[in-house]
Design a protein that fits this description.
Helix content: 25-40%
Shape: globular
Largest sheet: 6 strands, antiparallel
Strand order of the largest sheet: 1-2-12-11-8-9
Order of helices and strands: EEEEHHEEEEEHHEEHHHE
Structural class: alpha+beta
Radius of gyration: 17 Å
Low-confidence stretches: 1-6
Distance between the termini: 17 Å
Number of strands: 12
Mean pLDDT: 90
Strand content: 25-35%
Length: about 260
């Protein structure tokens, strides 16, 4: 648990929890945050034995370290457009590194990873994601998903072939349509959001959202408990409901400086 108080109009509190779950033999999720840079990251790897773990760790470390360095150099003088460009460049660089590793090492063949990156700059959030790991925002007690899954199911919903309720019980919930490390060109979505005091941001892998519905997630998010306890409650709930996958959560709480 770390708090950051700086020249920003807001201060940010970070917390991360990752767990193997109740079924998987190893944990292929990776979480990280860089406090001085106000940066949070989460990745959910996929591939052969241990390869997903490698891809996810590469994504969070490469993007996190490179972007944190850029943000440290520019500090409060960085424009939002510059943060957006830097984030896109860091993701592209990590994508190529993961793909190169996959192609050059037979043990890593076919590996890839989702990624969610949240970069907080004063009272703004620049959010990038690729794959089906998500970011939610709790504001005024209302939970809203602010990323859109890059998945086959989401495409079926968008095309009107399936309702969200039907998708929630589908057996094809883990088919992603975009990921890092699977093609020369990565296609993350990058968006900006205004941040208000009291906002809570939840970065999470599908090991959480496949087990815990939005209503129950919102109930935990609204609990008047410490941030680290809130994150642990989310992970524990997913495990209590079966924990079929690795479960990871990164929480970022904003408050008036």
């Amino acid at each position: 648990m770390v708090r950051l108080t700086g020249p920003s109009a807001l201060r940010y509190e970070f917390c991360a929890v990752t767990d193997r779950g109740q079924v998987r033999a190893n944990n292929e999720d990776s979480v990280a945050f860089h406090v001085p840079a106000r940066l949070a990251l989460l990745a959910d790897g996929m591939g052969g034995y241990n390869a997903g773990e490698v891809a996810a760790a590469m994504a969070t470390s490469l993007v996190g370290d490179e972007l944190a360095l850029w943000l440290a150099q520019w500090g409060e003088d960085a424009a939002l457009s510059g943060v957006r460009r830097a984030l896109a460049a860091c993701i592209d660089s990590a994508n190529r590194a993961i793909l190169d590793a996959s192609l050059s090492n037979a043990a890593y063949a076919g590996m890839g990873t989702t990624l969610v990156v949240a970069a907080f700059h004063d009272t703004h959030l620049t959010l990038a994601h690729i794959g089906d790991s998500r970011c939610y925002r709790l504001r005024g007690g209302v939970l809203q998903q602010i990323t859109k899954d890059h998945s086959w199911l989401q495409e079926q919903i968008d095309a009107g072939f399936m309702t969200p309720q039907q998708a929630a019980v589908s057996g094809c919930r883990n088919l992603v349509t975009r990921a890092l490390g699977v093609d020369v060109i990565a296609e993350p979505d990058i968006n900006e959001f205004a941040v208000r005091p009291g906002d809570l941001f939840i970065l999470c892998s599908d090991g959480l959202t496949d087990m815990v519905n939005d209503e129950d997630l919102a109930s935990v998010a609204r609990m008047p408990i410490a941030l680290e306890d809130k994150a642990q409650q989310m992970v524990s709930l997913a495990n209590a409901l079966g924990g079929r996958d690795n479960v990871s959560v990164v929480l970022v709480q904003s408050a008036a400086a």
